[in-house]
Specification:
alpha/beta, Alpha-Beta Plaits, single chain, 10 helices, Rossmann fold, 2 domains, five-stranded parallel beta sheet
Length: 310
């Protein structure tokens, strides 16, 4: 299967219709999506609306020069990187230095040869491709940093970041929000009796069951060890225990074939939440859910205990 041809958004800023037409002919082809601006102000506006991967700009333009355009673009650290080619008829070294200091990546002297233009754009494409690769790699590493390696569920960091946003939404709109801590019963015995590989199988199965039952509007994850966390919104106080019991019963009905035996494992849950969205402290919900979890453990395990904090 042929790999797709990379596409590059190119913004051309030049007050000369002749040069705009020339560049459009040189860069004609499916890999370039061209847009044009007649002066620096228009170019800056278009840049802010849709930052291109490559900018080709004339130095001398009415009201707002290409040099000013370079400086404005480089001053915005939040914008994705754009490769800038600055065009000018100035061949003096001082002018070249000034343009590069303003933020240009390359320098093209007018009138230019079409092959030279293509070569310099080719350099820009390689730099853009490198930035794309680094951004993809960075995004992948960020995803890895938020994912539990064993189960593939979000880890504590990812859950807390997501839950903080949900808390704000709950406080603003007044919908119920619940934090659920789940803990596998006698998990240490599984590891001690059948080995850590068996324990890992149980953890992954628990995570898969959680994943299947977690709505898109909610989130489940692993805190560490055999402790898991679920954040559930828009479920009433009357239904939250029913919801968690459904999960508890589904997992408890499973059996694991370890060492020729059919082994069943149960889980215990502690739940804490707000039915009105008044709570703003996620840590307080975690602590209360933890208290409920231990209360459920003391009650004999394989059960659910719920606390309402408002």
């Amino acid at each position: 299967m042929t790999a797709p041809v990379p596409r590059y958004d190119v913004l051309v800023a030049d007050d000369s219709p002749v040069y705009r037409q020339l560049i459009s002919e040189i860069l004609a082809g499916p890999q370039y999506a061209l847009s044009f601006a007649c002066d620096g102000q228009e170019a800056l506006r278009k840049f802010q609306e849709n930052p291109p991967q490559i900018l080709v700009t004339d130095w001398m333009m009415p009201n707002f020069s290409g040099l000013q355009l370079c400086r404005h673009i480089r001053a915005d650290r939040s914008a994705p990187y754009t490769y800038i080619v600055l065009m000018t008829s100035n061949t003096e070294k001082e002018g070249v230095v000034k343009g590069l200091e303003a933020g240009a990546d390359d320098y093209l002297v007018k009138p230019f040869d079409s092959n030279e233009m293509m070569a310099r754009i080719g350099v820009g494409r390689r730099i853009v491709d490198l930035h794309r690769h680094l951004e993809n790699k960075s995004a992948h590493l960020e995803e890895v940093a938020r994912t539990d390696v064993l189960t593939g569920l979000p880890n504590r960091r990812a859950i807390e970041e997501w839950a903080e946003k949900q808390l704000k939404g709950s406080a603003r709109h007044g919908f119920p929000l619940w934090v659920v801590l789940g803990d596998l019963d006698s998990f240490k015995e599984i590891n001690d009796t059948f080995g850590h590989e068996a324990g890992d199988t149980v953890l992954r199965t628990f995570a898969d069951t959680l994943r299947k039952l977690t709505r898109l509007s909610d989130m489940s994850g692993r805190l560490g060890g055999d402790e898991f966390l679920i954040v559930i919104s828009h479920v009433t106080e009357d239904n939250i225990e029913v919801t968690i019991n459904r999960f508890r019963e589904m997992f408890g009905a499973l059996s694991f074939p370890f060492a020729g035996k059919s082994v069943s494992i149960t889980a215990t849950f502690g739940v804490a939440g707000s039915k009105t969205g008044d709570l703003k402290d996620f840590d307080a919900l975690i602590r209360k859910a933890d208290e409920m979890l231990y209360e459920a453990k003391r009650a004999g395990r394989n059960c659910v205990r719920v606390a309402k904090l408002d």
